[in-house]
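Fill in residues.
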């Protein structure tokens, strides 16, 4: 599938005397890759819950100018298998590409295997369910930020010194449509109190900020670092540092891997109300 993108570039040629300007139409030929399967398999076990209900969402990549998503509702089989060989079936739940399991059994440290049969192709991945410490405290600083006059919400947690740990922190801000996500590791901070924060000038008394802390694997930490670096780029034509490839592969043809990542994590969640 090929697409053509017409970019109007205004080239202002400022001359010392005439100060004239012109417009030139530059036609850039872009190649659009064949649609790929996109897998959102984020298995999260929130502390204090059974974790038995889990969801996986399947879709396909779409052309740049398409406004509608392309959910996949006809996967032949979507399953996760644990160390003991027990299979958890994910069943199509709606027309949004969501597949739901109601009897999942999460166990910290256990390895799980994802298998998806779609259009006669098998996509597979494996990961370990990572644990995380509890959020020890969330507070606010009304004089935060570099200018010392901004609202800052700070979350604290105690790292475990037993092993190398990686974390993903998510702040759901009522004034942002997209969650604020960051990742951290304890490479130089093993066993100490760690923190993460956001700054939002619009926050006021009574507003709610949801804070999520998750334990993640080292490969997923590296994947998310790359994704966040790429997302932060202001220039859409700038080449990315590397291909942010996930861990979901086509068992029959390596080049036809799926996009996305299969991960499992324990999570702690706190809803903080601005004072």
């Amino acid at each position: 599938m090929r697409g053509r993108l017409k970019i109007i570039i205004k080239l202002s040629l400022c001359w010392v005397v005439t100060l004239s300007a012109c417009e030139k139409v530059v036609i850039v030929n872009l190649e659009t890759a064949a649609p790929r399967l996109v897998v959102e398999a984020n298995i999260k076990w929130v502390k204090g819950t059974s974790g038995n209900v889990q969801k996986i969402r399947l879709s396909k990549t779409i052309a740049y100018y398409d406004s509608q998503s392309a959910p996949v509702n006809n996967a032949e089989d979507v399953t996760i298998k644990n160390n003991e060989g027990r299979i958890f079936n994910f069943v199509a739940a709606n027309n949004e590409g969501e597949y739901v399991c109601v009897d999942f059994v999460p166990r910290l440290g256990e390895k799980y295997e994802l298998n998806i049969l779609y259009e006669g192709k098998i996509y597979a991945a494996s990961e370990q369910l990572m644990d995380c410490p509890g959020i020890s405290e969330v507070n606010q600083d009304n004089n935060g930020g570099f200018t010392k006059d901004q609202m800052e919400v700070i979350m604290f947690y105690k790292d475990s010194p037993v092993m190398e740990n990686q974390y993903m922190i998510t702040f759901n801000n009522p004034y942002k449509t997209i969650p604020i996500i960051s990742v951290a590791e304890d490479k130089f901070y093993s066993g100490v109190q760690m923190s993460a924060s956001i700054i939002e000038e619009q926050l006021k008394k009574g507003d709610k900020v949801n804070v999520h802390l998750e334990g993640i694997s080292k490969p997923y930490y590296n994947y998310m670092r790359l994704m966040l670096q790429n997302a932060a780029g202001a220039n859409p034509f700038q080449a990315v540092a590397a291909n942010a490839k996930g861990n979901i592969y086509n068992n029959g043809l390596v080049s036809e891997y799926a996009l996305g990542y299969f991960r499992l994590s324990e999570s702690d969640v706190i809803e903080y109300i601005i004072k």
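The radius of gyration is 23 Å.
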